[in-house]
Design brief:
Aspartate Aminotransferase, domain 1; 14 helices; three-stranded antiparallel sheet; globular
Length: 370
């Protein structure tokens, strides 16, 4: 419900028009922001975090609920589940709240990876579900991305056999930042979910600006074998609070709940409930990420470096040198960038961060690459 309104807003203002609004939206950031020591403090652009959050409204919700930290979160969690269900347009028995979307990934990796179930995924992609499944006895078919750094859906579908327990799609993909063409995405997930479970990781979905781009929650509503994960870590700036959720068919949700261990806590629940109502900070975060990407593109263009147009809050670019050396050299410049993503050892991932940090990254990269 709210997501549809927000995405309509984004298409209406456009990114260039949105930048003009930043003057008013800047006030939505924390009223006493951290003073950046750009000379001495390492700049963290390695984890795709949103450093502008949590919003002021969310921070107040957290402090106002400290006295509830002595209580088990079942009642408050039920209220959040109902809010999420209304947002996604499903009933509450479709929702599994987790300790960050990462816990949902691990729960699915355990359920569908144990007893020798095989999993199919792109390569490179986010590894949490895959590594967890491998620990529990699964074999993971890693299918190289295509020449455009996107999921090779044809090759992935050819890997499906009677042993395939799950197909994992991270869309937008981490680390490449690409999205699957919307009609191909829906057709693939609809077809494959008749043969096995499809897990659609939508951690970065909010940053997509393509008109009418679908969430695979649409297929969940149709009763397909689809699991969708979403998180409060990215656009809401709540990575340290550890709260996310899964949307899936009720029978699958019940099965996944059996493997959710950490769950979440009262303060994270209070924060998530407030975040869902804080449309202004949501808009602010998207515009800031877009502004940061624009600055990163400008730096890479100046250096003549290849990069992938991103639908996320990070950019994947080709430095032409081994990532280990680039990480070390950027560290000397007090800038932390993304880890290695084999087999693309000459590529690097850079998060948008705060605008001042992105500007310092540009200066540092030019020094390192000179």
């Amino acid at each position: 419900m709210k997501t549809i309104d927000r995405r309509k807003w984004l298409r209406t203002v456009g990114l260039s028009g949105g930048f003009a609004m930043l003057g008013g939206l800047e006030a939505l950031a924390f009223e006493t922001p951290e003073i950046l020591d750009l000379k001495n403090k390492p700049i963290r652009l390695s984890a795709n975090e949103n450093p502008y959050g949590p919003s002021e409204r969310v921070r107040k919700a957290i402090t106002n609920n400290f006295n509830m930290a002595c209580r088990y979160p079942s009642l408050a969690l039920a209220e959040l589940v109902q809010m999420i269900a209304e947002k996604e347009g499903v009933s509450k028995d479709h929702i599994v709240v987790t300790g960050g979307s990462g816990e949902g990934l691990c729960a699915a990796g355990l359920i569908y990876g144990m007893a020798g179930g095989e999993i199919i995924a792109a390569d490179p992609t986010f590894q949490q579900i895959l590594r967890y499944a491998e620990v529990h006895g699964s074999f993971v078919h890693r299918v190289p991305v295509d020449k455009d750094m996107n999921h090779d859906l044809d090759a992935m579908e050819k890997r499906i056999t009677s042993k395939t327990s799950l197909v994992y799609i991270c869309n937008p993909n981490n680390p490449t930042g690409t999205i699957i063409e919307k009609n191909k995405l829906r057709d693939f997930c609809n077809s494959v979910s008749r043969r096995t479970v499809v897990f659609s990781d939508e951690a970065y979905y909010d940053f997509i600006t393509e008109p009418d781009y679908p969430s695979m929650v649409e297929l969940v509503k149709e009763g397909n074998n689809v699991i969708v994960s979403k998180t409060f870590s990215k656009v809401y700036g709540m990575a340290g609070l550890r709260i996310g959720y899964l949307v899936t068919r009720p029978d699958i949700a019940t099965r996944l709940k059996s493997s959710v261990m950490a769950r979440t806590n009262m303060l994270a629940i209070a924060a998530a409930k407030e975040a869902l109502q804080d449309d202004e900070f949501y808009k602010f975060s998207i515009l800031k990420a877009a502004e940061g990407k624009k600055l990163i593109y400008r730096t890479l263009d100046d250096l003549g470096l290849e990069y992938v147009k991103s639908h996320t809050n990070f950019v994947f670019f080709k430095s032409g040198r081994h990532i280990d050396g680039l990480i070390a050299d950027m560290k000397k410049e007090n800038v932390s960038i993304g880890r290695p993503f084999p087999p693309f050892y000459e590529w690097a991932r850079i998060s948008t961060g705060k605008i001042e940090e992105v500007e310092q990254f540009g200066k540092a990269l030019k020094r390192v690459m000179s």
